């Protein structure tokens, strides 16, 4: 759903009719009930807003959803999967929250992982480069329980050791290899309904990859790091599917223009 909204609703100042969203997701084998349930949950979570025209219900993005989708777009199209410009610095986050704050602790950990942090040791998370931790803390209402620092590795500590200790590079590489196994063929996903379905599945697979990738310094990764080939493949296929998918979406989607 985030892939769909990011491609066909973000920056378009429009809302889409629920029935046409159902038609799009039918191409992916998703049931009407599942789509309606997802739309309802997203309204409750302040990600979508309902707009009525006659008997039809349209769904548009909230400011919160726009923020989330913009962040995803930057991860996919601007940040990229390969960190070739690392300046040698690390952002460190340490926190200690009481047991009663289990939910908040879980949310903070999730946000740190999304921001590229890995757990170095008990309560201490690190990420390469400068990270905007302040916005993460503000969204969760944290401050006093968290310490944020920027540092460089000094001997006997080596940055390569930090990468090895805080991040499971084998698991990261395996996820990229799984992406390549699925998409690096002459005719990817032949069972998919059409290029609109392939486009949404491709973007979803790639977004899940980059969301879990801390973008570790290229100098501390193998020369054959699979993210390099996977990123090239994603861009190639995204360009291939876009024209046909856009035509199919235009024919299916019932849109309601939104004005300030």
UniProtKB/TrEMBL annotation:
Transmembrane intervals: none
Domain Transcriptional repressor PaaX-like central Cas2-like, residue spans: 84-163
UniProt cross-references to Pfam families, sorted A to Z: PaaX (PF07848), PaaX_C (PF08223), PaaX_M (PF20803)
Any one GO BP annotation for this protein: DNA-templated transcription
Chain ranges of the Transcriptional repressor PaaX-like N-terminal domain: 2-63
InterPro entries for this protein: PaaX-like_central, PaaX-like_N, PaaX_C, PaaX_trns_reg, WH-like_DNA-bd_sf, WH_DNA-bd_sf
Gene3D superfamilies: 1.20.58.1460, 3.30.70.2650, Winged helix-like DNA-binding domain superfamily/Winged helix DNA-binding domain
Coiled-coil regions listed in the entry: none
Annotated ranges, domain Transcriptional repressor PaaX-like C-terminal: 167-249
Protein known as: PaaX family transcriptional regulator
Species the sequence originates in: Nonomuraea turkmeniaca
């Amino acid at each position: 759903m985030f892939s769909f909204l990011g491609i066909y609703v973000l920056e378009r100042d429009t809302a889409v009719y629920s029935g046409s969203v159902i038609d799009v997701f039918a191409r992916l084998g998703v049931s009407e009930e599942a789509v309606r349930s997802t739309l309802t949950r997203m309204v409750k979570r302040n990600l979508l807003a309902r707009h009525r025209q006659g008997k039809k219900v349209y769904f548009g993005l909230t400011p919160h959803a726009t923020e989330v989708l913009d962040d995803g777009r930057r991860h996919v199209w601007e940040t990229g999967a390969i960190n070739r410009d690392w300046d040698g610095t690390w952002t460190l986050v340490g926190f200690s929250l009481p047991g009663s704050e289990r939910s908040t602790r879980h949310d903070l950990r999730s946000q740190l992982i999304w921001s590229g942090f890995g757990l170095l040791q008990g309560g201490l998370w690190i990420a390469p480069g400068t990270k905007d931790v302040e916005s993460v803390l503000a969204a969760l209402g944290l401050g006093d329980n968290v310490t944020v620092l920027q540092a460089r590795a000094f001997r006997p500590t080596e940055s390569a050791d930090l990468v090895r200790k805080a991040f499971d590079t084998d698991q990261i590489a395996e996820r990229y290899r799984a992406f390549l196994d699925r998409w690096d063929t002459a005719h990817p996903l032949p069972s998919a309904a059409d290029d609109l379905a392939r486009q949404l599945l491709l973007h979803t697979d790639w977004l899940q990859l980059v969301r879990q990738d801390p973008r570790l310094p290229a100098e501390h990764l193998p020369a054959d790091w699979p993210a390099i080939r996977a990123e090239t493949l994603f861009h190639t296929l995204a360009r291939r599917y876009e024209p046909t998918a856009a035509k199919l979406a235009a024919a299916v989607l019932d849109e309601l223009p939104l004005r300030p």
